[in-house]
Amino acid sequence: LALILAVRLLDLPAHKQTQFLTRAALGALWEYERWLAELELAGHLADYSKRDEALRRVDSVITELVKKSGYEGLQADAMALRWDITKDEQDFRAAKSELEKTSSSEHPKHLATILIKHGDFDEAERILSDAVAACDPEAQLLTVDTRISANRIDSARDLLLMIAPDSVTPNLQLPYAVAYALVALASEDDNLKKVAAAKLRSLGATGTRVATYVNDFLETLEGRENKGQKLAVTRFRDFFLHRG
């Protein structure tokens, strides 16, 4: 678990992440820890285009989980990851069904995430509505992403500006800053671009992945990179909705 946490918190190079997660799976003390590590490793491999190996690991975990009881939430996460890798419609329906049956407080957000990726924006926003009404900043940021994805830029901006800065926990600072950048770029708001750039710079990002991500956004905000290309390929939800 310490190795998994290190990969999540430290901006390690890709090969180091693979090493840490492989060690985590091999050194797990019991099944649940091993399954967590395997799913984390599968997600990492998928991110770096090692689709076949990622899918093999996910399917291995799913095969073990269907024979067990009491791990429905983890099985739902595994099936959602499988769909994220395959983008197969049957896998989407299976993952959605499992997430809908899971009672964990985090799974509505996970369900909303796959709905956003699938293009079901209205349904995603409906699922998040209670948490948004309760001023849950994670749900608010996901809803901002939903509205940006649905090209409802004005309502995305309105919600973003309603988020209380002191409610944004340290693990949400990056998606919060990126939400500002996405809304600023989509609305062509120069003042909001300045605020977004200041928030990104305040992160003090170091390492490879996050630093590159932040620098790309700063270049885009400052007109040194093609805005349309960045908006088309960049989303922030996976930085704070961890698999497993």
Task: Give a description of the structure.
The chain is an all-alpha fold and 244 residues long. It has 14 helices and no strands. It has helices at residues 2-9, 14-26, 31-47, 51-65, 72-86, 89-101, 107-118, 121-133, 137-149, 153-162, 173-187, 190-202, 209-221, 227-233. It is globular, with a radius of gyration of 18 Å. It starts with a helix and ends in an 11-residue tail after the last helix.
- Which whole number gives the mean pLDDT? 87
- Outline the biggest β-sheet: none
What portion of residues is helical?
A: over 70%
Question: Would you tell me the structural class of the helices and strands?
Answer: mainly alpha
Number of strands: 0
Give the low-confidence spans: 227-234, 240-244
Q: Estimate what percentage of residues fall within beta strands.
A: under 5%
Report the oligomer: single chain
SSE run: HHHHHHHHHHHHHH
Which geometry do the CA atoms define? globular
**Radius of gyration computed on alpha carbons:** 18 Å
Features:
244 residues, disordered C terminus, mainly alpha
What is shown here, in short?
The protein has helices spanning 2-9, 14-26, 31-47, 51-65, 72-86, 89-101, 107-118, 121-133, 137-149, 153-162, 173-187, 190-202, 209-221, 227-233.
